[in-house]
# Entry
Amino acid sequence: MTGERIAKVMARAGVCSRRDAERMIADGRVSVNGAVLQTPATIVSDADDIVVDGKALPQKQATRLFLYHKPEGLVTTARDEKGRQTVFDALPSDLPRVVSVGRLDLNTEGLLLLTNDGGLSRYLELPATGWVRTYRVRAFGKADQKALDKLANGITVDGVKYGPIKAVFESRQGSNIWLSLSLAEGKNREVRRVLEALGLQVNRLIRVSYGPFELGKLDKGSVAEVPQDKLQQACAGYFKG
# Structure
């Protein structure tokens, strides 16, 4: 009988990400057919009785992906130790349990992908997926296209090496300039740190696309589900795997 690794099954059931599933298994919180699991390498099938934290594993849900226009001022975490409002506090109550694909920091707004499939979230975050993230940026300072073109070869800032970035000067607005930046890595605070190295201070940061998915005219704070045909096409590598 064919099956899948337990962590993948848990993720596709919408319980958690694969990484979190591995931690839960290590903590002895998962059992199969009455026996506490010892390893996340365990292969299970639909015939197995899987219990997580004393409750039967929910039946596998159809994988869904949502576009969310994150406002600034929300943290992208399930719980915040400082008591700040989270993205998940602000989501409509009729959404299923979802996890985010990567994060946007407190002061960044724009497109955040959400999914009920922890495995898909992990897949879309991997550098190997190669999806480009595009941002519109307002920054205080001066820079021309020639300076921005240097980012095409990557840049090292405070010992951290950032990959190639396509940066385009859009316009000047008083003491600020508007730019468009496209990058594939998406390291923590990458846009802000890279532009600071060019003498620019970011004062507004909006993610407008993530791979083939675009923010478009989605209202701030709103959620839109990606149609299944588009999801299957865009994430074919995940579903085939």
Q: What stands out?
A: The chain has eight helices and 17 strands. The first helix runs from residue 6 to 12. The chain has three domains: 4-56, 65-128+217-240, 132-210.
